[in-house]
């Protein structure tokens, strides 16, 4: 394991965020004060230019970047580095007025009016020409600037465009995917059903909301195409910067549990993964600890996209956001917890939106490091500054990485396909939640999983859980078989292996693609329960006697041809007595199948068994505690996060606590919402 520092210029972790000095160019006193306050807040880096196009180029062709150059120079001379954004997240009015093709069309094909942001057509040639001009000017002026750390491509790329250009691009993309053979597409999309056959690619529309949106293959390919289109746009911007001489690393800021695009694909084309983290703390439906576990899952997802290097938390809110139905302030101490959770899970940065609160318009009440009062004595400023000082104390963790042996499989097209399938209940499909509940169960045992895709390399893992793996990509049946054969523990659930990558049902029994042999069973029926329906399963002891019973809700499968060992049986309903949880010893490993939905904590025995078989150490943590570890060649850094406001003591903890410099020798006492880093040599 080698430390992999993202930014060799910085001796430690990044602390900073989006800064919009272009809103204050007529107030040099404010700009001067900002630098002083940033230094007091221990900020060493800002993101500039995210929404600056109309200042960079107020009139078409009249580009002036002197203001930015002055700001960057001044920041750098004060020890503050810059992440420089391309400004394509929002367009100046002149651009849309002259080149309407830059404006996206909605899902009925109707062109938007000018305004808002994140709504450009990714394929518009006129828009790209203007992007090329501004990005080239930025790269020519700032590539190689000693204060420039990296390039931030656009902002939170998202959404679909249904314009004519995109419709044609979609047709070309399909022709390419199906080898210019319309019958191949007809077969894959099963278009003889409802007489949906096409004669040529140019008959195919995007899934307009008032058009063809019942062909499931079309819906799925549209999402794949839109992923390609956004990635193509992002790559166009990166290529433009490179062609103009930029050599610094690139990123684009991803979003939590993002649905529109397949991030596994997009992430291949950027150098560093970053994402924007906005926890919904202190809400009325979920404990803080549970909300933070959702964050932790997201951090793990983004970390796993490039797990040999740290990732970046590119945005987070100092204090509060202003776009939720209820915008509640974070309670004292929570800022540290949320920020340290990012570092604990593998981020080398704590970045905010925003450094200074804007004076007007829609984000004027969004949290910021510097509030309208403009002083260094607000509660939020003080918490940010204290965090900055904590980050300095733990700067040696920069570059360290995780080393997890458990993974959860999370494919974007599987997610989309489950939601689009006319099956189960749309109210309770809950694929994301199911993945998170498995993650949470491992976390409660002090074992941190990575989140992976079917197509990634699985060599580092000893346990893989693939809940609801409805879609099997080509070759995945064999990959699972090889993994188990070689000694891996693989867990699947109800709704596994029903369709291939084209969404065509696997014939000959589920799970398909050879997996019935690996699991030693077939699933004949998947039954959807009404919310008020419950079944149960009886967990069996080693002698096959029922030991205790666990509730089943939402889904249950009737299995047949079961040659696997039975670990639990259904307790009731028409499937009473049939296998519910099984283990098939296969080669050197085991393939587990859970044929119903239960609370994961109710089947903890299964997790313990998999961990035992994989020889992975685990220790049940006190409730509301998260543990994460990062490694260098010589050291392990264990982070303990107290995700509730009650103090807690964790026994048997030894090592140097990095934030306070105290040696811990047994009992680790933590205040409510505290975060602690323990260093040990390997
Ligand atoms: C992000 C966005 C920022 C800002 C922030 C507010 O999604 O990238 O520009 O709007 O939300 O929370």
Structural notes for this entry:
This protein is an alpha/beta fold. The chain has three domains: 14-159 and 235-397, TIM Barrel (Alpha-Beta Barrel), CATH 3.20.20; 406-613, Class I glutamine amidotransferase (GATase) domain (Rossmann fold, 3-Layer(aba) Sandwich), CATH 3.40.50.880; 625-681, Golgi alpha-mannosidase II (Immunoglobulin-like). Helix 5 (125-142) runs parallel beside helix 8 (216-243), helix 8 (216-243) runs antiparallel to helix 13 (412-420) and helix 10 (288-305) runs parallel beside helix 11. The radius of gyration is 26 Å and the shape is globular. Residues 155-156, 276, 278, 315, 317, 321, 353, 363, 366 line the site of beta-D-galactopyranose (GAL).
Please specify the SSE layout and strand pairing.
Layout: E1 14-18, H1 28-40, E2 45-48, H2 53-56, H3 66-77, E3 81-85, H4 93-98, H5 125-142, E4 148-152, H6 164-177, H7 182-189, H8 216-243, E5 250-251, E6 253-255, H9 263-266, E7 274-276, H10 288-305, E8 311-315, H11 334-345, E9 347-353, H12 379-393, E10 406-409, H13 412-420, H14 431-444, E11 450-452, E12 463-466, E13 471-472, H15 476-485, E14 489-493, E15 499-500, H16 515-519, E16 522-528, E17 535-540, E18 546-552, E19 555-560, E20 565-570, E21 579-586, E22 589-594, H17 604-613, E23 625-631, E24 635-642, E25 648-657, E26 663-670, E27 675-681
